[in-house]
């Protein structure tokens, strides 16, 4: 093999590795290239960074990195008996580019967080009060295995990136948990809400076949009020 051919192979290999690294990097929040990047919505005086603009760092103030109220219980008087208080980049602008956020979750007795996934984050859950049954389901490569456990006060559980997971208060008293997520804006896709509450509705004949349900059952599910907590 000639030196020119070897060089060509090395070039294509390096290009492939760079492309792979780029694709992996794009799957996560951007790494910060400066000390702080306080999010603002002002297009005139900001610099665009993956969904948010940055305030002039010299104008940053303590309030940009602060949130108060996570000690206050959320209202669980809803369909699922739970409430999520978000602390992401929309509540703390200083989280912009830092790749983290948090939530407080309140559960009424038998309240739950329905099966859902975070498209941009893994999650670590800490139980502060109560007894929760939690778990996630692996992908088809691992045979859709359920990995679940009952948690009590002080217990910690991790939900891996992209896995469908849930929480259920199996106790007779209120429960409280705090969760950390590996994105400034992790997002949430609640499975039933997304499938049966889509607007406009997904073709019920298709959903009937996909879920092996009678089409009338699908239509009944689509008529329900699917709300987020």
Give the gist of this structure.
20% of the residues lie in helices and 28% in strands.
Name the descriptors.
4 helices, alpha+beta, globular, 229 residues
Structure description:
- With 229 residues, the chain is of the alpha+beta class.
- The protein is built from 4 helices and 13 strands.
- The protein has helices at residues 3-25, 191-196, 204-211, 215-222, and strands spanning 39-40, 47-49, 52-54, 82-87, 101-107, 112-117, 123-129, 132-137, 146-151, 156-159, 164-169, 175-181, 189-190.
- The protein has a 5-stranded antiparallel sheet, with no helix packed on it. It has a 5-stranded antiparallel sheet with strand order 9-8-11-6-13.
- The longest helix is centred in the first third of the chain and has 23 residues, at 3-25.
- It is globular.
- The termini are far apart.
- The model is unreliable at 13-27 (pLDDT under 50).
- This is Germin-like protein subfamily 1 member.
Which oligomeric form is depicted? single chain
Gyration radius (Cα, Å) is 22 Å
Please summarize the sheet with the most strands: 5 strands, antiparallel
User: What percent of residues adopt helix (DSSP H or I)?
Assistant: 10-25%
Strand and helix order? HEEEEEEEEEEEEEHHH
Mean pLDDT: 86
Beta content comes to 25-35%
How many beta-strand runs? 13
Q: Structural class from helices and strands?
A: alpha+beta
Low-confidence stretches: 13-27
Put simply, the count of helices is 4
End-to-end separation: 64 Å
Which shape, going by the Cα principal axes? Answer: globular
Q: How do the strands line up in the largest sheet?
A: 4-5-12-7-10
Protein name: Germin-like protein subfamily 1 member
């Amino acid at each position: 093999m000639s030196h020119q051919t070897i060089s060509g192979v090395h070039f294509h290999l390096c290009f492939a590795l760079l492309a792979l690294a780029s694709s992996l990097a794009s799957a996560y929040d951007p790494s910060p290239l400066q000390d702080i990047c306080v999010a603002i919505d002002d297009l005139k005086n900001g610099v665009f960074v993956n969904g948010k603009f940055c305030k002039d760092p010299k104008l940053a103030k303590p309030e940009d990195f602060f949130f108060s109220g996570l000690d206050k219980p959320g209202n669980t008087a809803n369909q699922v008996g739970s409430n999520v208080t978000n602390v992401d980049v929309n509540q703390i602008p200083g989280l912009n580019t830092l790749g983290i956020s948090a939530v407080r979750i309140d559960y009424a007795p038998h309240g739950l967080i329905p099966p859902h996934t975070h498209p941009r984050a893994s999650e670590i859950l800490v139980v502060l009060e109560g007894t929760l049954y939690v778990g996630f389901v692996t992908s088809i490569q691992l045979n859709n295995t359920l990995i679940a456990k009952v948690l009590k006060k002080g217990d910690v559980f991790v939900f891996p990136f992209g896995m469908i997971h849930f929480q259920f208060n199996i106790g007779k008293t209120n429960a409280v948990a705090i969760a950390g997520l590996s994105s400034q804006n992790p997002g949430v896709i609640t499975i039933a809400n997304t499938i049966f509450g889509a607007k406009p509705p997904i073709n019920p004949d298709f959903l009937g076949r996909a879920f092996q349900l009678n089409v009338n059952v699908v239509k009944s599910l689509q008529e329900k009020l699917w709300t987020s907590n």
